[in-house]
Amino acid sequence: MSRAINFNAGPAALPLPALERAREELLDFAGSGMSVMEHSHRGKEYEAVHNEAIALLRELLAIPDDYDVTFLQGGATQQFAQLPMNFLGNGKTGDYVVTGAWSEKAVSEAKAAAGMAGGAVRTAVSTGTGDGKEKSYTRVPAAAEIPVDPGAAYLHLTSNETIHGVEFQDFPATGAVPLVADMSSDFLWRRIEVSKFAFIYAGAQKNIGPSGIVVAVARKDFVASGRKDIPKIFQYRVHAENNSLYNTPPTFGVYLVRNVLAWQKSVGGLDQIERWNREKAGLLYGAIDGRPDFFRCPVERASRSVMNVVFRLPSEALEEKFVSEAKKRRMIGLKGHRSVGGIRVSLYNAATVEWVTVLVGFMDEFARANG
Ligand code: PMP
User: CB within 6 Å of ligand 1 — which residues?
Assistant: First the structure.
């Protein structure tokens, strides 16, 4: 078997040991004579996996005790609506930092949800320039550009814009205003100071596991302040109080999350994972910057993403050729998002330094042959 060199943006590559473990345990989980998928979500076999996944997350990220860790469904997209449903009741306002396509979507869904509840949504700052098809995002705002309104119910940001390759390296201090982050594409690639945030959510399908699960890390008092007059299934409080077992969770997905997190711990935790990620990003940005006549990264240096590296070649025709020649060498997932074009390389935790070395070698060859 020869595994693909998978640079997909999500669903993305999973660490091989996590998949091998799943293969190993598939037909007979923990000596039970059945797969984990066939167990009740209320049984002790599944419960052990569920609790292990949560405990591993707590350990890897050093999550303080006054935070809940919950598994939610509906993707990060559902959180765009669920968050304002919980926190933007009558007259409340949510402030949004807009740095790319995903924060734009978060604002638009929040407007619809807040509108139903009598709340409001404001764009605190946007780094977008141009309009329509020409709209571009090439940086995150400096802390001084982000107005923190003490009256806001929360301030929302997208820590990493998966499509535009723009990432916050540091997070703004928001004082008493709860800071909320969509960390879907840069959760768990390094340590973060969880206590800076009131609420973090992340779709699993990049660094945590398969699609179908959203991990939320949320301060208990913030969760408790959410509305109680919306359907229970949408109340964060209900999921937290029930240890993410209010209704049937995606059990096999949680099991795979457990395998991925156990692998992260086994290799040395987030310190080691961060070292690898910085090495990968250093190699790739180095290759781009090393040939400025051929490759060009549109993102400002201080905002460059360690997870999603975007760049352009001299023409769209060459970009197409680049993607198709890379594919012949088993490298897939290099085409930029359809809304922005170009090349995108997603360097999530399961992408290895060796993969990036192969890619960088190919880039050099390609530039010499086509420059
Ligand atoms: N936010 C970000 C930053 C994302 O990258 C994505 C998916 N790529 C989403 C939200 C939406 O996630 P989902 O498709 O799981 O709803």
Answer: 10, 75-77, 102, 158, 162, 182, 184-185, 203
- Segments of the chain assigned to CATH 3.90.1150.10: 269-370
Residue 203 Cα to ligand 1 middle (Å): 6
| pLDDT the model gives residue 90 | 86
SS3 readout for 117-139: HCCEEEEEEECCECCHHHCECCC
Inform me whether the pLDDT recorded for 293 exceeds 90.
yes
The rounded Å distance from CA 14 to ligand 1 centre is 17
Give the CATH superfamily of 269-370: Aspartate Aminotransferase, domain 1 (3.90.1150.10)
| Nearest Cα residue to 147 out of 124, 127, 169, 170 | 124
206 is catalytic: yes
Determine the topology of domain 17-266 in CATH.
Aspartate Aminotransferase; domain 2 (3.40.640)
- Residue intervals of the chain classified under CATH 3.40.640.10 are 17-266
Q: Are 167 and 185 in contact (CB under 8 A)?
A: no
Q: Which of 63, 35, 68, 64 is nearest to 49 (CA)?
A: 35
102 has catalytic annotation: yes
Residue 97 sits at φ, ψ, to 5 deg, of -95, 125
Catalytic annotation present for 92? no
Q: Given a cut of 90, is residue 99 above it in pLDDT?
A: yes
**Which letter, b or e, does each residue of 127-142 get, where b requires 16 or more Cβ atoms within 10 Å of its Cβ?**
bbeeeeeeeebbbbbe
Confidence of residue 165 (pLDDT cuts 50, 70, 90): very high
Supply the pTM of this predicted model: 0.98
Q: If you write DSSP's letter for every residue of 40-55 in order, what string do you get?
A: -TTSHHHHHHHHHHHH
Among 17-31, 121-135, 150-164, 253-267, the range scoring the smallest mean pLDDT is 121-135
Closest C-alpha to 249, from 262, 234, 239, 241: 239
Give the whole-angstrom CA distance, residue 305 versus residue 165. Answer: 5
Q: Indicate the pLDDT class of residue 337, thresholds 50, 70 and 90.
A: very high
224-234 residue pLDDT tens: 999 999 999 99
